[in-house]
Amino acid sequence: SAHKTPEKVIEILKEHEDENVVYITVAGRSNALSAFVDAHTTKPVIACPPYSEKFAGADIYSSLRVPSGIGSVVTIEPEGAAIAAAKILALEDKRLEERIKAYQKERRGEIEGADESVKKLKL
User: Which of 46, 48, 60, 77 is most exposed, with minimal Cβ within 10 Å?
Assistant: First the structure.
């Protein structure tokens, strides 16, 4: 929580400043964490706020409407956050890039297979 433990958040960021990292922040309600992290690091920040039924999901706005000069990106699906982080890291890691390509090919195969199954149904 950036609201409750800002010093701890800064301490964590300092520990990893020399590393090739992408931060994925997960904070609900008033998501100050993502913007706070982004303001205190040069590394990419991906906000992945959990969906809440309270307020009809309006908590997302605190991740979308951030102060000027903040460059965090937002995805509401944890899988999407992990894929985005992997793609950023793959800019400098060819083995990771190949793993992403294989993952994408596998996903396409799943979709194409499901499509063929539906086409064979006699409705």
Answer: 77
Q: Which amino acid is at 22?
A: V
Beta carbons within 8 Å of 81's beta carbon, 6+ residues apart: 24, 46, 48, 75
Out of 50-64, 88-102, 107-121, least confident range: 50-64
| Domain with 106 in it | 93-123
Report the alpha-carbon distance of residue 34 to residue 71 in Å, rounded: 10
Q: Which tens digit of pLDDT belongs to each residue from 58-88?
A: 788 888 888 899 989 999 999 999 999 999 9
Rounded to whole angstroms, the Cα distance separating 51 from 89 reads 26
Q: How far apart are CA 84 and CA 45, in angstroms?
A: 10
First-to-last CA distance in the chain? 52
